[in-house]
């Protein structure tokens, strides 16, 4: 199986290429350099593997949520590259990739993945490890204020991962584990997409879509002054 995966929805520009059991990976934290870096990195890894685009079985992309610009870069690149190569695509949640990274790196089985959504809000999703060793969404992904993050519903030892955890303020280390620096990694996209690729559940490139979770990037004055909103 030959699969290309990439994510640019956060400060990380992450690319992974799987060829059989081997993976080639380029993961770099390069804020605002994704557009310049993504496709050259893809070409380099493909050349190292001596593959042409048409030899790929699927392309996996990080669909968001995250930076609006970063999400658009990944989705646009996925559409163009997959269309030219005549291959199907799989979109994977950025939050799921963060949770899967926590499982891979630390063995975390219960993760509240969150990203700073600006405007005093968080992108949020809770994930638990399933029997196949893949992080599965426990509740729908959503946009919330920190006060509505649902920390009281979490068991002791639950992990809070991603940049959004900063907005929660002090957290009792005896009850919660913080992984604030956890970013989505392309090799975790590969793991999350394996069932869809294996079962042939691929999207036509034209159907590749971003997941913004909301459709606005700024609040009005009245919205910023609404009771209960954390200033953003």
Plain-language structure description:
The protein has 232 residues and is an alpha/beta fold. 27% of the residues lie in helices and 27% in strands. It has five helices and eleven strands; from the N terminus they run E-E-E-H-E-H-E-H-E-E-E-E-E-E-H-H. The protein has helices spanning 34-48, 68-85, 94-106, 186-198, 221-224, and strands at residues 2-7, 12-19, 22-29, 58-64, 89-93, 110-116, 122-129, 135-137, 142-144, 158-161, 176-179. The strands form two sheets. Strands 6, 7, 8, 9, 10 and 11 form a six-stranded mixed β-sheet that branches. Strands 3-2-1-4-5 form a five-stranded mixed β-sheet, sandwiched between helices. Helix 3 crosses helix 4. The longest helix has 18 residues, at 68-85. The chain starts with a strand and ends in an 8-residue tail after the last helix. The relative contact order is 0.19.
What attributes characterize this protein structure?
alpha/beta; 232 residues; single chain; 27% helix; 27% strand; five-stranded mixed beta sheet
Furnish the topology, listing elements before pairings.
Layout: E1 2-7, E2 12-19, E3 22-29, H1 34-48, E4 58-64, H2 68-85, E5 89-93, H3 94-106, E6 110-116, E7 122-129, E8 135-137, E9 142-144, E10 158-161, E11 176-179, H4 186-198, H5 221-224
Parallel strand pairs: 1-4, 4-5, 6-10, 10-11
Antiparallel strand pairs: 1-2, 2-3, 6-7, 7-8, 7-9
Helix pairs in contact: 3-4
Beta-strand percentage?
25-35%
Q: Termini separation (Å)? A: 44 Å
Low-confidence stretches: 217-224, 227-232
Q: What class do helices, strands and sheet pairing give?
A: alpha/beta
Total beta strand runs: 11
